[in-house]
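Lecture notes, unit on protein representations.

Consider one protein chain, 285 amino acids long.
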Amino acid sequence: MTAGDHDVGEADRRFRVWMRANLDLAAARFGLKVTGEPVFGWRDRSVAAVATLAGPAAGGPNGGRWLRVVSEQLQWAHGRAWTGNADAGVLHGLPKPHVLDAHEWAEGDWRRQRAEVMTLLPGSPCSPTDVAAGPLDPDNGWWKGLGSALHRLAATPTDRVAIDQEKVDRRVRAAYGEEADVRIHRWETVHGDLHWANLLTPLGIVDWELWGRGPVGTDAATLHCYSLTVPDLARRVRDEFPVLDTPDGRRAQLYVAARLLHRIGLGDHPRLADPLRNHVRALLR
């Protein structure tokens, strides 16, 4: 390890300690006590944990909560992704948490924090990582429930935009060359980040920051691409979501793959790199 690596590692450790302190600060603000092991999000931009109501109500049947704090540089601390979880309160009949309260504060002139306290869903993540960490075998009822939830979501009107044609063009051309063209013909309301760490068993769908209008088939395409490291699981996703074998579904997969190739280029999901590139070659053929 070089001195530079050590400095980066120490900075990351200190940032996590600071984020953990922010979680306790948010808990106090909402009258909660952090009781679960903190879970850090993508590149430590968020931290979350199970929390319980402080005081006499702590032992009651509704004492459990999910507490999350996200931290952003000021230029990013606004817009649809910043308030997506709270905005998703308009979505009904879905197996998702609901934001009960939110609070924001500034950290000097360099960052802004947003804390959200949510209902606590039963169950646990299907995978500890976005990419399937190994064989997964949800039962038939789980798959049926997921399909029904995504169908209901897709038909829900919203003014929020998760993905537009300009974003598709930018990602596709960066991944496949300036001449690449993936023209989207149909749109629906999508979760926008449907990977295995955002799915629970029993069925629950979490992390609604990015939801809004996007290409038809985006959620199925996202789950399929995150399943490519486990071929049997990828086949199950294709079987459950026939849209993937339609022109709309193939366009959605090309966009999702381009987005993930960008993330892989930044150092994320190294196990997914080869399976995803092989999948893209098959789609382009």
